[in-house]
Amino acid sequence: GTETVPAALCLRLARCYRSLGDRAEALRWAAAVADAEDDFAAWHSAATLVQGCGGAAAAPGLRAARVALLGSYTVAQLGPLLRLAALRRGIALDLHEAAYGQYRQELLDPASGTYAFGPDFVLLAVHEGEVALPDHSDSPAEDVETELRRWTRLWAAVARRSAARVVQHNFAIPPEVHFGHLAARLPGSRYRMTQALNHRLGDEAGSEVSIVDCDRLASYVGKQRWFDARYWHHARQAVALDALPLLARHTAAVMAADLGLARKCLVLDLDTTLWGGVVGEDGLAGIRLGGDAEGEAYAAFQEYVARLKDRGVILAVCSKNDEAVAREPFEKHPGMRIRLEDVPAFVASWESKAEGIRTIARTLGIGLDSVAFVDDNPVERQAIRRFLPEVDVVPLPADPAGYVRALAEYPGFEPASFTDEDRARAAQYRARAALVRMEASAESLEDFHRSLHMEADIRPFDAFDLPRVAQLTAKSNQFNLTTRRHGIAQLQRFVADPECVHFSLRLRDCFADHGLVGLMIAFRRGETLDIDSWLMSCRVIGRTVEAEMLGHLCRRAAELGCTSLRGTYVPTAKNGMVRDVFARFGFELLEDEGGTTTWRYDLRARGPVRNGFIAVVEPAPTGIVVTA
Fold first, then answer.
1. Under DSSP, is residue 130 helix (H, G, I), strand (E, B) or coil?
2. What's the Cα-to-Cα distance from 365 to each of 401, 457, 538, rounded to whole Å?
3. Residue 54 and residue 83 in contact, taking contact as beta carbons nearer than 8 Å
């Protein structure tokens, strides 16, 4: 069959499966419309079909999210498309749509329907006409700051009254500029001030508010397509229907990133993907990388991939090849923009690529649903779609000149933030791969742990670490006892609560500084310290970090006069590995309700948990990053 199934066929298959009573397959094919094309009618039909199947909640294994949609224009058409785009990104979206134009009233009224809904996200779908800036100003900087405060006050109202994260659409600037090209030279023109406002919104958002860059999206599709006055005059629809699928896709991608659902790892083919030609047949000198137009296209693709690595995407190689031959260009070719040290997992063999990707996921300690795969061969792409449906496959065009755009348009790598851990991720996963090899050769697990010379610093949450703490709560799925997702606003409330015990753990070993990899949040309830959240990065699972964290919590409990710990395990599709973690450390089972278990640890009878494999060191001063 064709690689990308046309929207019409996706819809026919979805309707067929719905008629057969197979809602999961019906939803899968409805979601596939979001990959097929950006046709509003097709998206709308698919979104209607999703609702007819009982909504995305009928699909297994999705993350639930409650979204309050507040618009300055008619958003009735955007809402269903957003549900569809969210379904494609693994989110079952429950949507509350506020009345037309009532976003300020909703957010400023603590008794509004928005707050009663209890959203995880507040989405401000606003347009440029809502900006209170003059056509020309003699004090542009002052006017921009005044307008900025109008929006940041709304963000602050949300933070005070709920635990929701704000997602703000910034302002797509219409092409009709009455100052013409002169507007670009007039700081006081509305055109220049709206640009400045968009920049200042980004500055003020920081890590606490997400921004969907609508002005960039409008420029991408063309502002004549984004803006259509007919829709505005007839229905107060500020974004043309033809542009709504794009807006929905990118808004869903931003939310998915905030929920920790972005892809972590890019698995790359080699021959005719990273370079032209086949190195095993053409030799090192015969591959095309730089020089002519085709070679420059491959070089540009490598440069873009390297930029993804620099912002935290893990790179891996999966090639049907002899390993020595596959490594040679990385080691010797002067035109390579990617080096072996950039690739923590390198699989070159004659096994199937599905098996190679499984090996990569095991080596890196990530799930297959964290992987995206790029290969120029459509047969290999289709095989991965069939045998590893959890893996996202990024189709490439026939001409390598289009590779960069194809990967740039893929929404799965949308980042939620950019931290020091993101910068160091390639080194951290390269260290993990080395650990896997060392563990295989160790005579005993105890000797292996001692040989790592692990050091940890454990500290209460502070302003410097909160962005990474929030990122970890959003992304961690495997070692996560309750999977409670706390945003920065909620974390700040925890920090201010005297009954809350909170701390993060940073880990170093002989291979790397792994950065902030674990955290705990607990609340004092009389003589009991009740664990709200306990989670770790998958990079350090199996390294005794959990024992070190629990031991620290025992010590904090004793300092507070607590005599017991209480913990809860809430099962999810991904955290089965920690089902028995409380039992392993001597907790007693108190209650089991449908798999959700409650446990108690008697500190007086058992004493604190101890771990002899990690040395706890004094933390570095806030703001200083410790590196290996």
1. helix
2. 33, 23, 6
3. no
Site of tokens 């500190």: 603
Neighbouring residues of 441: CB distance < 8 A, sequence distance ≥ 6: none
CA angle 325, 331, 334 (to 5 degrees): 115
The three-class DSSP label of residue 221 is helix
Which pair of structure tokens corresponds to residue 349? 């063999």
Q: Could you say which DSSP state residue 612 is in?
A: S
CA dihedral 101, 106, 108, 111 (to 10 degrees): 160
CA dist 264 and 360 (Å) reads 12
User: Interior CA angle at 616 toward 610 and 620, to 5°?
Assistant: 155
- Record the tokens describing residue 78, joined without a space: 């955007």
Separation between Cα atoms, residue 14 and residue 33, nearest integer Å: 10
Conformation bin of residue 118: beta by default, left when phi > 0, alpha when psi is -120 to 50: left
Would you place residue 438 in the very low, low, confident or very high pLDDT band (cuts 50, 70, 90)? Answer: low
Which single residue is written with the structure tokens 């310290």? 529
Helical residues (DSSP H) of 237-368, grouped into ranges: 244-258, 279-282, 293-310, 323-332, 353-364
What is the DSSP code (8-state) at residue 527?
T
Strands 614-616 and 596-602: unpaired
According to DSSP, residue 276 is labeled B
Residue 467, helix vs strand vs coil = helix
Task: Tell me the C-alpha to C-alpha distance, in Å, between residue 597 and each of 445, 528, 551.
Answer: 29, 17, 21
Within 10 A of 55 (CB to CB), how many other CB atoms are there?
A: 17
Q: What is the DSSP letter of 463?
A: T
Q: What is the pLDDT of residue 477?
A: 84
Q: Read out DSSP for 387-434?
A: H-TTSEEE---SSGGGHHHHHHT-GGG--S---HHHHTHHHHHHHHHH
Is the separation of the CB atoms in 95 and 69 below 8 Å? yes
Spatial CA neighbour of 213 closest among 169, 272, 262: 169
Q: Is the distance from CB of 23 to CB of 92 less than 8 angstroms? A: no
CB 33 within 8 A of CB 49: no
Tokens of 181: 């090209």
193 closest CA partner among 134, 130, 129: 134
583-618 pLDDT, tens per residue? 999 999 999 999 999 999 999 999 999 998 999 886
Question: Which of 206, 86, 69 lies closest to 487, judged by CA?
Answer: 206
Q: Under a CB-based contact definition with an 8 Å cutoff, are residues 351 and 325 in contact?
A: no
Q: Please give the residue that has the higher pLDDT: either 622 or 44.
A: 44
Residues 6+ apart with CB under 8 A from 626: 457, 506, 508, 513, 620
* Longest CA pairwise span in the chain (Å): 79
d(CA 471, CA 504): 12
**Do the Cβ atoms of 367 and 314 come closer than 8 Å?**
no
Question: What are the C-alpha distances in Å from 523 to residues 266, 483, 502, 545?
Answer: 39, 16, 9, 21
Residue whose C-alpha is closest to residue 613's, from 453, 434, 439, 506: 453
Q: Of 94, 124, 89, which Cα lies nearest the Cα of 255?
A: 89
Q: CA dihedral in degrees (47, 48, 51, 53; nearest 10)?
A: -100
What are the pLDDT digits (tens) for 26-80? 999 999 999 988 999 999 999 999 998 887 776 777 889 999 999 999 999 999 9
Tokens of 135: 């056509």
Report the C-alpha gap between 395 and 59 in whole angstroms: 25
Q: What's the pLDDT at 500?
A: 96
